[in-house]
Fold these 2 entries.
Entry 1:
Amino acid sequence: MMTQSSSSQFWLTRPLGERTTQIFLGVLFAALLLVTVLHLAVPQGHPLYVNAYTVNLFGKYLSYALLAVAVDLVWGYLGILSLGHGAFFAIGGYAMGMYLMRQIGDRGTYGHPVLPDFMVFLNWDSLPWYWYGFDMAWFAFAMVLLAPGLLALVFGFLAFRSRVTGVYLSIITQALTFALMLAFFRNEMGFGGNNGLTDFRELLGYNLRSNDTRLGLFIATGVALALGYILCRAIVTSKLGRVCVATRDAEARTRFIGYRVERFQLFVFVVSAMLAGLAGALYVPQVGIINPSEFSPLFSIEIVLWVALGGRATLYGAVIGAILVNYAKTVFTGVMPDAWLFALGAMFVLVTVLLPKGVAGLLIRRKRQKHDERASTGEASA
Amino acid sequence: MRRFLILGLACLLMGWLPTAQAQQASPDDSAALELLEALDVSSYPAKGEAITAILQSDDERARDWLQALLDGRLQRTEDGRFVIVLDNSGRNWPVEDALTNESLGEMSRRDLNRIGINNALRNQLRSAIAVVDLYSPNVDRRRTSATRLLGEVDEELAAPLSELIAEEEDGQVQRRLAQALAIYQVESGQLEGVEALRGSLHPRARVALSRAANGDDPIVADAAREALASIEQNLKINRGIETLYFGLSLGSVLVLAAIGLAITFGVMGVINMAHGELIMLGAYTTWMMQQLLPGQPGLALILSIPAGFMVAALVGIAIERGVIQFLKGRPLETLLATFGISLILQQLVRTVISPLNRTVVTPEWMSGSLVINDALSLTLNRMVVLGFALVVFASLMLIMRRTRLGLEVRAVTQNRAMARSMGIRATRVDIMTFALGSGVAGLAGVALSQLTNVGPNLGQNYIIDSFMVVVFGGVGNLWGTLVAGLSLGVINQILEPWAGAVLAKIIVLVFIILFIQKRPRGLFPQKGRAAEG
Amino acid sequence: MTRLQRKTHPRTPGRFATALIAAAVMGVSAQAVAQENDPIKVGILHSLSGTMAISESTLKDTVEMLIDKQNEEGGLLGRQLEAVVVDPASNWPLFAERARELLAQHEVDVVFGTWTSVSRKAVLPVFEELNGLLFYPVQYEGEESSENVFYTGAAPNQQAIPAVEYLLNEVGIERFALIGTDYVYPRTTNRILEAFLMEEHGIAEEDIMVNYTPFGHSDWQNIVSEIRRFGEEGKPTAVVSTVNGDANVPFYRELANQGVDAADIPVIAFSVGEQELSGIDTGPLVGHLAAWNYFMSVDTDENYDFIDAWIDWTGDEDAVTNDPMEAHYIGFNMWAEAVRKAGTTDADAVKDAIIGVAVPNLSGGYAAMMPNHHITKPVLIGEVQDNGQFDVVWQTPSTVAGDAWSDFLPGSRDLIADWRAPMRCGNFNVVNGSCGGSTAAEEAEAALAE
Amino acid sequence: MSFLQSLKTRDRVFGFMAPEASPVDVRHGPILYLEDVTVSFDGFKAINNLNLTIDDGELRCIIGPNGAGKTTMMDIITGKTRPNEGSVWFGSRHNLLQMNEPEIASLGIGRKFQKPTVFEALSVFENLELAMAADKRIFPTLTARMTGEIKDRIDEVLETIGLTALRYQPAGILSHGQKQWLEIGMLLMQRPRLLLVDEPVAGMTEQEMERTAELLTGLAGKQSVVVVEHDMGFVRSIARTVTVLHQGSVLAEGSMDQVSSDPNVVEVYLGADDEEAA
């Protein structure tokens, strides 16, 4: 299967050049700046005014984009189609959610100093041990990265050690997130069951219901995305990145030239999971709720679709895809509520069939042409 | 309700027989009207009295009235006439006069007031009718009424009951009545009753014994305890069988849902996320067939087996031609494209048919359960589905093993180029295979329509489980799918009682994950060089 | 009685006043944009796709129908009404986003919407922040009273408690199996019922069985056979079902097939209405019960008019009506009435005006908006008929006022809600006379201190 | 003893050693030693107690009809397939059956597949860079920098395999023959002690074949080379010792002339021809 796919995908080759990255980061920061200015400087009611709702929306898109980048790292470069990345996203989100719940303190409807509301009316008399420490920001934020990282480490260790590959891996990642969804739905788990965690008040002392905080979160997400992107780029352009691509296309071969493939897979998988967790943590305070539906396998598949649509193994493609799809969702669900699923479904079908390299594929082709010229000149000199 | 039994039997002793009634001249309708008017009161106890009165009155229409009352079809018009509604669906209902039985044409539900009853009255009516039926020439009626007597007997009843037992010619009725009598005896602390109840699995009997076991009379108590012990033992065994059956029937559902996938996914390597929606289409086909053939749910169901297969197969072909053929050798891409398709199909059903669930009627021969004994009865609909699953599986095996298509399919999957060069039309084989897989999904839908709701979300609930089953069993191995499905079903049902439904499912999933670690290619992996990626 | 005294308990000066003024200012500034003669915008926030579409899509149609009717009657305050429909697609974060869109983008004057508890919880902060009005039409677990939400569905004391009382007194049930889907509504309801049964009626612990299943649970074999055995112990037994939506069809199918008959073990459901029944073959279910505040079979002319209007609107001869639809019917009329009373659609004005407003319900009585933003409702017990309808077998002599805070939960015993000036508090503690939280808080603090 | 071994091998697991200085112990006898090895897939015995010894610096050709078990044998040596029984020793110190592919590879056993497998998405240059003997743990790889000497080494190999011109091309667009060369090049980058070369000249032109022959014969001596090949002409051109495999075990061994005159061998091959004809 690997070899099959590789032949059709050898275009996924050039590690990102300096310039792509510069362009991407440039565009990103320009966008951040623009939105900020239009939100703060432009008076309300003015056509150019960007209201808090929109800022918040963009913030959400950006966190999705970061998630997509994380998925692209493992799928695009490592060839691991994870249908369970929603799980890492959600766990990161829950870690943040737990912190925000603790921040509510005694301002809950029951005014209980320690227990969140849902625990009070489900008659919990004390805080379960795994909620300890989440009143401290540093601990919670550490957990945002560590919890998903740890899960990925254990799961990946088992899976890669025993060389579960291809579809099998995809399916058990799906099983993982499905099992977690069911588990988090259980109220005994102490994560609020189906209602999840909500009614957040403040983050690091900033009121979550003020527009400035929203703007802040939006910018923070943008920066996080930039950093995540830079990190991923560093990885994929390093020799390690090339080992990943090698693994993706010919795992056995990579072993025979002496690379312990499973360790490389594990390393990248964990990094990706942590990024997903970070994305989740930024997502939650912006949408104001985290509940087990983020674990649903369908969501995880959707993430993969963003990446596919944007273009695998390009990183920026993932970002484009995530923003495009979710923007489309927002528009469609508003404009044609009854029919938007048709549009979404059709989009997925058409892109996979007609545009297998995603939106980024077009750009890539141009790059490849340039590259060939360079190659041919090299030939001449030789 | 005992009151009415007694009364019934009292009448019997007075030589009253409903059958005898028929000859007598029918009383004038004013009396009858009074009887019915007594029913049209708000208080339920009063209605109870009225029912008694009707029962006591020697009117041969009594049974019809009571039956109509029981079915909520005895109603009263604005102008005070009592009518029996013949069909209470839609806005206007055909009615007939309760007294004269003459048809009054259609009436609007606005002009009719139902004479309401509640469960208590319903019980009362059932018993009343049962008592009447105890003397009916119809054996089945006698059986049902005899069964109702279990645990309802008291001393006034004991004496006449033993006479009845003597007279009764039908063995089953006799046994039932004897049990009923024995239960009464045990409750009243007589030893012979205990003996008679030994080994009886009927809950009433068990309750009676356990009460006796804590009774004052030591002899009876010991005997009862002893009897109980053996019963409990017996119950355990039955429960074990029951759990196994539950497991197998759940397993059969999983197998049905997964087997089509085992073909498209296992044999063709296409990850068809729209598989669930193909199942859904099968279920909707069943619904449509039942709409087309109103009143014959059974026939409709039978017909929808080929219909469901065809519909799903055609859609399958459309998918294969329209999308999948362009994604040769990109299995993971097929996942994405077909996911889009599944979204479209779902919303299509929502907009074209309805977002609401559709009613699919269970035909007579599939409803209820097969009574093995008082403690163990197997639900028929699931038994049919179980059988159906096995048949589908067997025929698939035949197709794969014995037919030309099967041969070609295997050839193409093993070495496409070679198969081509040997003159096999690979594209045609692809279409056929995918159609087959999809068609089987349709069959699964037909079966599921008898177990769960027929709605737009039907497919989503099964797609993930299906993938688990196929992967657990080993991709490309139909036997694997069968074994995997059934075993997962049984495991789940064994876990459920002590772990709870949710936890059981989680445990099963974790089990699958760990299992895949141990055997990365499932229960029945394909070995050899061919299998190396 | 005791509750009455509580309600007239001396109030503290509303500490919310300042916050409220701020909110008011916001609200007004938002209003200022809207011109006098352009239409009044009514937001509809119900899922049209995804798993909840099955229940919610009809509610969207209901509101559209009501708006239509209102416009035919000349609209409100001389202005036409305009529906703004969005699709939260059964996705909870999307609910919050859509709510924000309705309030911030479209600047709607009122929103009718949400079904599940989680969707309501998700939008609640948005409505409180942007001071919108939400009418929530579904029976729910209570334990909430927001200044911006009007709960036109039943609170537990308007459905669960009377239903169980009916079973105890009218049917003589002594053993209860509480079967529910594992989410907050069944959890809370069952806890309330357990407390109620044990404390008020001395039902023994072993006579209560509690079981939870996941959403869309489809394999009920084990649980039903468990219920069957539970009912074979010689005491009259009933099942109290808070099983949600899709899981009901297989549940009832299994009940029927395993021969659990309504006469032996009646099942009383709180989430099964006409619409759910329309997906089930009701033949084998006759006699099973449901507790609602409205049934399609209610024999009043208002109801028949409503049904006919609905059938004409949908163009479907066998379209059914159900309780949440009535809730929207009541809610919509209440809001319209309040707007007329206030002479404006301004949120704060409407909030003040609507308390005490009474409009006819469909079962021949009146529904009044209580100070705790819940309404008065009659409680009806219906038995399933073979034509997919319910036959009302019992109903409360008078209407029952919704309790925001249950008297049977330790956390909320001492809480009441009253949104009238000067109290304006959703969780007023009658014991320590302060707004904000139960004495459970002090207890816990004490516990921590030790 | 085995514990000590495991320790020794472990330090290789962590790759502290540079493969150039492979510590393989050949002081007493062969570099590769297979004894009574048997493998069966679903009951079919692909290898049937096979015995084979390769001496240090030897160039050995292995021939045999299809299904004789040639490739499976390589799978076993490189740790891809685990035999049901038998033992496989690299030198007199390393029991290959206790190691996985990367360990074996870093011990200095390089393999070229029957079907040329190169990293099609990567450029020729990168293919060689990855194969290059180096510290192949995660973080060293992550922080690896391209130094001058690495470049020179790669250029050198590029020269030998004549792909200098295509260095920046993705390997995916190379011709079959070029891929074969690239793969051999990757072996060279590994500086292995033992090369396992599976059908190196399939799809090559005459000239390419000759160059391959030169290359392989050139390697022999410094390194041991095992060549599996169908093309008799090629075998004849390079072979010193030839081993004939049939149905998973050694049928004959000796110089090309010896084996080709061996009646069994002839019989087998004629039989094979018949099959192919059929």
Note: The longest strand of chain B covers residues 92-97.
Entry 2:
Amino acid sequence: MTNHKRIFVLFILMLLVLAGCEDSSPSSRTALFKKVDPAPLTITKNPDQLEQILVDQVKEEASSVKSIYDVAVIKGEKEILVAYKVKHMSRFRMKGIESDLNKILSDKFPDHTFTVSSDYKIFLEAIRLGDKMKKPDFSEKKADKQLKKIISLTNELT
Amino acid sequence: MAKKKKTPQQKQYEQLEKKYETKRPVVKNCIKAFFVGGFICMLGQFISFLYIYFFHFTEQTSGNPTSATIIFLSMLLTGFGIYDRLGQFAGAGSAVPVSGFGNSIISAAIEHRTEGFVLGVGGNIFKLAGSVILFGVFSAFVVALIKTIILMARGVM
Amino acid sequence: MLKGKQSWIFENHPVIQSTGVSGGPFEGNGNLAKDFDILHEDLWMGKTSYEQAHRVLLEEAAQTALKKSGRSADDAQFFIAGDLINQITPTSFAARDLKIPYFGLFGACSTSMEGLAISSFIVNYRGAKNILTGASSHNAAVEKQFRYPTEYGGQKPPTAQWTVTGAGVALLTENDGTHENCPYTTSATIGRVMDMGLIDPFNMGGAMAPAAADTIEAHFNDLGVDQSHYDLIVTGDLGKIGRDSMLALLEEKGISIDQNKCNDCGLLLYKNDQPVQSGGSGAGCSATVLYGHLLNEMKKGVYKRILVVATGALLSPLTVQQGESIPCIAHAVSIEI
Amino acid sequence: MLPMFFWAFVIGGLICVIGQLMFDVAKRTPAHTLSTLVVAGAILDGLGLYEPFADFAGAGATIPITSFGNALVHGAMQEAETHGLIGVLTGMFEVTSSGISAAIVFGFIGALIFKPKG
């Protein structure tokens, strides 16, 4: 039984390490576990009305898919990143949901390119980017670079 | 594996011996395997979560570092003589997760170091894991080959 | 003298003058720790390989047996011993260091009684004055050869047995009437190889039981005695399963043995809470228990006449993998005091 | 993500139970059992079933040895998509290399620093 205790202690230690390393931005801390329902964003500091409406609509469309429960939308210069979470029992159909969503979005907004991802990492990074963009010294250029980085993450397979 | 036909006498003894043979506690073993195996997988989930949260890994890519970490932990437990006891307790619970694969390689490597690093460790490191790699690779080859041919025939590729 | 089909009577009563028994840490925690002359805390015994540690066990047991009788290696004409490792190298290396003319035996776990029977025969007919005989095994060295690496996390089923780390060596001497309160051998029965078609290498007790039953039956027939002749009939390493199967098998043949009179070295050696599954096994099992515990009990007067039936499974990892069944053997020696 | 931990536990545990049944009921050796599970993983991936399963159970599907077969097929298929039939051979270890190399490296390090405890 001591083996189990050792493993358990290891587990607890890791939890402590994790707790110690947390950064201070509140929404990204819980983003993986709770529904955070982030506001849709554009990387331009002062988005015009049209752009804001567009991202709102994208979020609405994505949220309307039945199995999806939390959506983060960030619009970059060219691409729009849609990160979402899938209800656990629907995760078996994750590939199907992704292509459904792709289809819906490209039908509704044929003029825009979308990157959709159900990956927790992408969602987390989208939230983190949103938090960073709130800081005044975070430039648009930096934000766009960061967004491209996130999008390139979705293409990594191994 | 050639199985020879048993004589009536041998069959009779087999019957008799069965009566006295201690039965394997299948249900108890399965419960133990379930909890230990489940725990190792949950630990894996936790580690992959750490990789996602703190490093640049996605759900897709976190699998590899997670396996490597589990194998590293398995090396420590094997080296300190804990894993074989865990194995006796948990059976498949500790053999089926990738930590068991690591254990089979690491235990063989440690065991044969007295015979030298080249012939001992080098020659025996895959003593147990070799069959897993062989059948994994060969079956994957066959499966992927069939799938590729089917996809090509359909003109998808 | 040949008696019956396969038994010897030793009219001159060769004496077991002294014994030496060594063991490892697991045996030190067992039931019979006080009957060991030397107990090692460390499985490595200060050596760099388990095979060398195996050799140390046997050498120490042999030296102890010689020392207790006040003799030196030069006084022994022959050294008759064996173990389980490939080509019985630990025993041969020990023989190299002892410098006594040497017969290497392989009878798997029955080696101890095979050695004692042959030694008794030679001494009985004045082929030698003193013979050192014994057997040894080392848990980790044997596991490495027959099963998996010691650190591998494989699950042993409850039918499996625990290989004893230990060596037992006896110095057998011509009976010149000067040895008082020393046990002596009176007869031996050499067993046939029996194969009941069992193939599970994790159930040796079950496979060996028919060999033990066959040898006991032959012994009773050859000598014209029954169980009442003995105070104790002890088997080598049948374990729980093997012992029960053997008793049932003898019952079927019309030979009933009193439950209390029949014991097994593999069951005696360890405590109930030690994780040995079905019991102890290995060449060192019967050697350490007989030359340690049982002879001590005889000297105390607990038993006057015992029959020791050491059983051996004559398999190799190769034959198991090739799907062969497990051939088994048992040799019996009767000891009186 | 929380349900992920739960399902990783349950599914991972269940795969181990299958292994245990192969040990105890079918009386297979560990090597036979693990080889069978790896082949099963490869076949499941060939049928396209392993990926949804891994999406659902996370580490519960990727930590058991079955994922080794799945990853081998995956690597082979990825390469096959770009290089055709020859990719089946060349891509085999694309995905699994890390697990095997980790085991080899740690195995050797283990042999350097540890002695079998017996």
Note: Helices of chain D lie at 2-24, 30-46, 50-57, 59-62, 66-83, 85-90, 97-113.
